[in-house]
Structures are given as structure tokens and as C-alpha cells.
Specification:
two-stranded antiparallel ribbon, four-stranded parallel beta sheet
Length: 302
């Protein structure tokens, strides 16, 4: 949001004009700290959904997320969340699972429930500034699996059902239907997703929009049209990842049809090789098995 409200006002108006008759929705990922009533009015005008990051209770959040001068951010984010809700917007929430959450999953769930915050529980990735602080904040796949399983049980056993955790919904749906949705576990995310970096480069997804990864650009919109660039996706080595996954170590895996090696970027983070499966493989196997067992016990899965 540092880009400024006038720029957003211009681009939203442009999109509304150019995409007339097309069903679309905008969303913006933010920490909410710069949200104002003026921004909220703009979001309402153009049907923009703001999503934000909040790492649970004040005690944990203020250890993980501080301002530029080291000041805590929990109170300001909660006040901006209240402002959004007062004006009729209910932002989505991402919780970044870190070392500070170990042993505090019940407190996390109760906090999210008390504040009526549906959320996604993602592990801290070894990327960007986080790479320099993994000893302090990072978790292992085994720790992520254990916390996710504990969190799933709290959610499934909550008869009031006031909030959801979207990863659990997606995984449970995949297990029951034997079909995948979204980009995380789909067979080939490149069939449905791309991202445009600030440089104009067309990238495999938003996680690749980093100046250090521009070598994986499909092309640049300052030099070519999107229609000229798009055919390169299916011709790329990146697009062949699903073939490598299905012929490699995932070939005999019970969960292949609902996982497909996991996130493309996760696999790349592990080794710098697009052919790699997600570094969370061992965690997902435990999470999938536990969710399947709980669904069978609840007679929701045959």
C-alpha cells in the first residue's frame, strides 16, 4: 500500500473499464497497518478484498512481527481490522507458523475463534528476510505437521464451527473427492496461474516475483504482448514438472493424486530444481494420514 491510494484508484478504474462484462475480483495482501477509511471506501467501491497476516495472540505476534524501529504491531493491526469490519469488510488472514507457536496451538485456536477469524496456517518459508532468522523463528516439517494435526483436531472437534482453516478444508476436500483444487496441490499450477512482476516479467507465480529469480521469466510485457508470451509456458521445463514428479519418488506414493508433489515453489526452494517435490513432503504425509483417519472416524470418508 506504499504505492499510494491514487495509483490504486487509477488502476481499479482502468480494470473496471477494460474488464466490463467479465466476472473478476481483486484482492490485496497487506499487514493492514496503512489501511485508512479512504482506502476502505475504495475497496468497497471496486469490490477489493484485503487479506492480511496476523500470527495469533499478542504475545506471539509481537515477537514475530515488528515495525521498522522494532515496535510491536499487534495493537495497530487489530485496530485496523476493527475499522475494516465496521465499514463492512471482513479480511482473510494468514498465520505464519513459527517456533514461537510450538506448545501454544490451543491458545492460537481460541484466539482466532474469539475474534471470528478464519485463517490459513502456513509454515515460515526459507525465503527473503526469513532466511536470515531461521534459527530463531523457523520450524522443521515434523514440527509443522505436529502443530497442524493438533490444530486440525481442535477445529474438527469444535461443534460451534464458527471459523475455518482453509488448508484443512482443501486437504479434506481433496481426500474425499480424490480431486484437487487451488494451486498448492494441483497437478500443474501453470495451467491456471501466472504472475506479473513489477519489472513487467511474466513469472510462474507470485512467489517467483523476486529480482534474483528473473531468469525464470517467460517474457517481459515491456517487450512483447501477453499473447506472445503465454505459449512459452507449455514449452518450458517448468511446465514439465508434473511429469518428473509422477515418474520420480512420488510415483508410488499413496497421496500422489491429491498432492502431485506439492507447491512448485516449495520444491524449488528445497534444491533450486523445479523437478523437486515440496520440502514439506514428510509433513504432508502425516497431515494427510491424520485427516483421512479422522474423516473415516466421522464417517465422512469411505
Amino acid at each position: 500500500m506504499l504505492w499510494g491510494i491514487d495509483n490504486y484508484r487509477e488502476i481499479f478504474a482502468f480494470m473496471q473499464q477494460e474488464l466490463e462484462g467479465i466476472n473478476y475480483q481483486n484482492s490485496i495482501q497487506t499487514n493492514l497497518s496503512l489501511v485508512t477509511e479512504e482506502f476502505i471506501d475504495l475497496f468497497l467501491q471496486y469490490n477489493v478484498r484485503p487479506d492480511f497476516s496476523l500470527d495469533g495472540t499478542k504475545a506471539i505476534h509481537d515477537q514475530q512481527r515488528v515495525g521498522i524501529n522494532g515496535q510491536p504491531t499487534f495493537d495497530i493491526i487489530m485496530s485496523k481490522l476493527a475499522l475494516c469490519r465496521e465499514k463492512g469488510i471482513s479480511p482473510g488472514c494468514i498465520v505464519v507458523a513459527g517456533k514461537k507457536h510450538i506448545g501454544h496451538i490451543p491458545e492460537l485456536y481460541n484466539f482466532m475463534k474469539e475474534n471470528k477469524l478464519s485463517f490459513k496456517f502456513n509454515p515460515l518459508f526459507s525465503a527473503g528476510e526469513a532466511s536470515n532468522h531461521l534459527d530463531e523463528y523457523g520450524i522443521t516439517p515434523a514440527e509443522y505437521a505436529q502443530m497442524s494435526i493438533e490444530l486440525f483436531d481442535l477445529w474438527l472437534d469444535d461443534n460451534q464451527g464458527e471459523i475455518t482453516e482453509s488448508n484443512f478444508v482443501e486437504i479434506a476436500s481433496n481426500i474425499v473427492s480424490k480431486k484437487t483444487t487451488g494451486c498448492m496441490f494441483g497437478r500443474n499450477c501453470q495451467d491456471n496461474f501466472l504472475a506479473i512482476a513489477p519489472t513487467g516479467d511474466v513469472m510462474p507465480c507470485g512467489r517467483f516475483c523476486d529480482d534474483d529469480l528473473l531468469q525464470y521469466s517467460y517474457g517481459n510485457l515491456h517487450q512483447e504482448t501477453l499473447s506472445e508470451i503465454l505459449p512459452r509456458i507449455k514449452q518450458s521445463e517448468i511446465y514439465k514438472r508434473s511429469e518428473y514428479i509422477e515418474k520420480g519418488s512420488c510415483k508410488s506414493c499413496k497421496w500422489l493424486d491429491i498432492c502431485h508433489g506439492g507447491c512448485l515453489h516449495d520444491g524449488f526452494l528445497k534444491s533450486g530444481d523445479f523437478r523437486s517435490k515440496t520440502f514439506l513432503c514428510s509433513a504432508y504425509k502425516k497431515i494427510f494420514a491424520h485427516i483421512e483417519k479422522r474423516l473415516e472416524e466421522a464417517k465422512l470418508q469411505q
